[in-house]
Specification:
The chain is an alpha/beta fold. It is built from ten helices and 13 strands. It is elongated.
Amino acid sequence: MIHLSTSGHYRHNVQQFAIVLLPPDGRPSPEKTPQKATNINMDDTPAIDTPVGRTFYFKSRFVFNAVIVIDALRETDLQTGLTVYNQLRDLRDYAGHEQLIERIPVADAGAMRTALEEIRQRCRDGLRPILHFESHGDKAIGLEISATKDRFSWPALESMLRPINVACAGNLGVVMSVCQGLYAITPLRLHRHAPFYFLLGTQELIDQGALADQLPAFYTTLFETGNLDNALTKVPSCKPFHAEKLLAVAVGRYWAQACMGRGGSERAESLLTNMKWQLGGFNDVGRLREIRQAAKNKIRSDVSAETLQRYADPFLGQRECSFTFEDMLAWLKS
């Protein structure tokens, strides 16, 4: 469902959607099944040490009011950036949508930096864009810009997108119509702000025009239904990245493998062994039990709302985490 509201000079499309993580029997609980949802299977993410097939519900909210095509193709390339821009304008003009549609040609790395910095400044006035990149790309070098073939590394791009996402209150969307564009997520770190809310890209080399055949359906679905989940399914050659999903997987894996069950016990024994070497051994069996229990209690205490918040605050910034500690604990224990 799309709700329109006014902020600054821009009108916002506010979209609430759900990431659905299925319970053990594979059937969503009726009281938790959202109206619009998608199934995201955790099998394609780093494994969490929970029973096979365990998945988990959370709803997430996304705001956008513009699509900006950043066109870094050469003149000799198939002009898919211009094609996507014209398709977006037609979609807006003939279907009555209110999103701002822009195309910014960039000729070199300096122009790319200038364009992204100007977008950041506009986001402070209410712009909430999806940035659509058209460029050559490579998993190792990043973007290759226009006829100059300037290289714009993934870390350099991440460092420019991160302040934009901060200015967007964590609502930046990125579409990488770029060979191996999914590798733009490689510089991400949980201890600093996410550079985007979602990113759509491919791990593979792609033929020019291949994504251009699929992306119109993505934008049409997004504009007409306001359902990001459904829109992402229209681009089967790409994989979506979602910042909150990464947070859930990373924190859940840490808890499951290092704080709960066998993993927590092994970690406690490792701490105990280190302390034994530091102290030169334990003469008192009672003291040994006391220290072992204290180590276990300390490790278990890390499975807490405070720990989740400690990771969520720097990574999500102003965006409120869409799931709670209680939600995650029920998932891990199910």
